[in-house]
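User: For documentation purposes, I need each entry recorded in a consistent format: the amino acid sequence on its own, followed directly by the corresponding structure tokens. There are two entries in this batch. Please keep commentary to a minimum and don't merge the entries.

Assistant: Recorded as requested. Entry 1:
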Amino acid sequence: MCGRFTLTVSSEEIAAQFKTNPPQLPQLEFNWNIAPTTPIYFVKGETPSGDVRSIEIARWGLIPSWAKDAGRASNAINARSESIAEKPTFREAFRSRRCIIPATGYYEWATELGPYPPKQPFYIHRKDNALLAIAGLYESWIDPASKKEVTTASIITREAVEGLATIHHRMPVFLTEDKWSEWMGTSKLRESEVDQYLALLN
């Protein structure tokens, strides 16, 4: 997880749920099969408190700022919560560029861990059809060829729990509203704060 997800709402609807500034960006088409490298929306904080927010567009598949080419993008669509504080690909983004990736739902394929036939597909979404608030990271990368800045993002995953653990061993990290502001605050984390922010992902 997570290799495909869906988003079938407008940026204005995202702004309403996540209480962001009015979006000033192109509208992405509704997409029932978002794949790696596809443009996606993400919500980020604009202040240290994370209470002022905006919506931006990124390419799904994080490229660390120090990468020499874009080949890493398809390999960094997901970031494991257990290692984001140390892994070089995600370490700086975790400390400074945390975000929420909105989704209508996502697809998962059963493994041999549960009662379902392996590779049986499932579509996972909220019963009330509200957007999923998935914890994410974003990064800026300069393309050496074009010299253009490219914004990329990654979904954070964790060990699956409860009913989802019968389908697959991993799941996205879902953030409840009481965690949004703290997670999206713009202040760079001090070493003493790392465990506090990792706890938000449990």
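Entry 2:
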Amino acid sequence: MKSEQSRGLEFSAVLTSKPNASSVDYVVNSIKDLLLTKKVLPGDRLPPEMELSRMLSVSRGSVREAMKILSALGIVEVKRGDGTYVSNRGGEVLFDPLLFSLIVSQPSFDELKELRLILEMNVIRLVIRNACAEDIRVLRACYAKMDDLKNKKEKEYEELLALDLEFHSILGHACKNRPLETIYKFVMQYFEPYIAQSLHKHTNFSIESVETHKKILAAVEKYDYKAAEQAVADSMEVWEYLVFK
């Protein structure tokens, strides 16, 4: 592990001032660029506020505001009395700017359907290629919970919704492609209100939804690409029908 002194020298070498940019934006973009180029890695401690201020030729207030933004986005963690670290948790953020951008763009339902279909087709192909026995076991266990709920007279809407999203989250993890998993998770987060709407509109939603998930699971268990793609296509048709019926 590199010493704090050598890390400080590296930061000094790659961080430069840029007076024609907004000070706060420039600090945020500088950290982003360091992460993209892997000059800074998850778990690394960033230079102190005063040092970053000097390196970037911005005020300490600008550095402080930038760190608040990066912290809210889950990019850095501020540890009181210790310093500011690049996050290595990859967990939930307070607000996803990508999600906000998609909301603001006001895509049509057909555009959203195409986006989800493209992603899900590729996720399922990678799942069949890369999933291990444990992934399939976890997916099977999630489906079993959904199946138990489908015929209950008292519909557990929140639990059904959570299991539906969990099923897709497991698929994303099982594809073994972290960037694709992240994008897929983000897209499913966008679709959550649509799924919830279908749950509450239709008493038969749980039965039809569980059946489509059953087909996906069966195809994954058999490592059958063609059946998996057909199951995803069928799932999308059922989902669209339930949203607009």
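Summary note for entry 2:
The mean pLDDT is 82.
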